[in-house]
Amino acid sequence: MVxxxxxxxxxxxxxxxxxxxxxxxxxxxxxxxxxxxRLLATLEDVDAVERFDGAHWRIGPGVAALNAAVSPxxxxxxxxxxxxxxxxxxxxxxxxxxxxxxxxxRYVDQVESDxxxxxxEWTGTRAPMHxxxxxxxxxxxxxxxxxxxxxxxELAALTxxxxxxxxxxxxxxxEVCEAGYAWGLEEFAEGIDxxxxxxxxxxxxxxxxxxxxxxxxxxxxxxxxxxITARVVEAAAAAGRDLEERELPRA
Amino acid sequence: MVxxxxxxxxxxxxxxxxxxxxxxxxxxxxxxxxxxxRLLATLEDVDAVERFDGAHWRIGPGVAALNAAVSPxxxxxxxxxxxxxxxxxxxxxxxxxxxxxxxxxRYVDQVESDxxxxxxEWTGTRAPMHxxxxxxxxxxxxxxxxxxxxxxxELAALTxxxxxxxxxxxxxxxEVCEAGYAWGLEEFAEGIDxxxxxxxxxxxxxxxxxxxxxxxxxxxxxxxxxxITARVVEAAAAAGRDLEERELPRA
DNA sequence: CGCGTTGTTCCGTATTGTGGAACAGTGCTG
DNA sequence: CAGCACTGTTCCACAATACGGAACAACGCG
Lengths: 251, 251
Hints:
2 copies of one chain form a homodimer. By secondary structure, the first copy, chain A, is of the alpha+beta class. Chain A has helices spanning 3-17, 22-29, 33-45, 61-69, 72-91, 133-139, 144-151, 166-179, 225-246, and strands at 20-21, 49-52, 56-59, 94-101, 104-111, 126-128, 182-185, 192-200, 206-215. Helix content of chain A is 46%, strand content 21%. At the A-B interface, helix 1, helix 3, strand 3 and helix 4 of A face helix 1, helix 3 and helix 4 of B. Chain A binds a DNA duplex through residues 2-4, 21-24, 31-35, 37-38, 54-55.
């Protein structure tokens, strides 16, 4: 064991409990003042603590950064990113990552193709679950009561082609659930088609969706649906495996 | 600077970026394998990393614990707790802490008096803003558009005495805003009275509320309102000062 | 102004952290 | 099945790094 490291973490624990100056912290961890000052200076250097009020110490941004690096959302983004990039490299259309957020899908990442005629950037935006493939693959696995509540609410029609009839949606979701993917043809926005598949966590729950979208005039190419579908499903499964490796302790 | 500490944090950063075994991590930080193994063993000892899949390392629960110790909600709970305890010690009634959560107040902490005839525990529950003093002191400082939207919605009457008339509420909120506290007499639940004052953060925003509540038959005692009010207002202000000391960087 | 307290810095030294090497364990291939 | 490559674990001699007492500056209070 490395003593200085253990001492530093004891200091970190006390600082987190109650920010203070060097002398008080030293008393609380029962170490000499100069030792504590030196360790605090080093902890400051690595952003684990920061100064306030002249010479008082509190936890610094480095701890939040370490924690954020393994947060569930960031885990998903990091796990999915290389697979989004692979999809774009092969299919030459944009690929994105969506998370469920209440009754909506929120887009949290996107990799763009180098095609000059593109669809706009969606990251940061939201869409109703029923109107986009990413939403459909997640809705397909909602418990009955939650799905009933959703379908009993207002179902926005974003284009002429958005499916808003609850009965038709139920039947569709049943197919989506069995197939493990969903296509949407100009249902969210005129001129945009897309296909999505769910990312599953270690317990098999659908926790996010990977999708590929493109302008309707060229996507999907004639006869291209099966191949594109397969690739998206594979990419989502691979992202799920990567996600498993990254996940925080369940305890 | 303490070299071993800096090395340990370099390792932590890499582990957070991508969990791995000793050899890969050592390559990434460009240190000898045995040094990295020793530092990882120590980081494991302090819960900063943990093992998975036999001999792979990832960030451990200690980082989340450090981070949680300084989260905004926990900051509030920790800052307010001693003041809740003081209030209970003096007034011999329960004191609680409420946070705004959308259109509701959510109770996140409570200290109980030792009086044998008590009001039930509210921690973890929610209440509509307009029906409880804690909500009123927060509503009183909402921007006009948000307040308009709230008052234009459904205002639940929880008892005969709950004020649900928007005009009466507006006038009341004006008084609450000027006074800096609010009393509620059997408006949330029959037989329960309470008084609340806002906790303000470093910028002067009302971010939470401290309240004291008791059975209506004995609280407030005759003539006791002014003194109780003053104590609650003081406690909330003191909690705000403590909160300031604990707050995370704004960056 | 004197005093007590906190924060900062320095320096000699010994203790603690180091890193190369040995070895156990594992998986893959011919 | 044996050999090989690779990873993870442990040990030990030693020197580099971490240590802590002491000096001193700064600050607030009576």
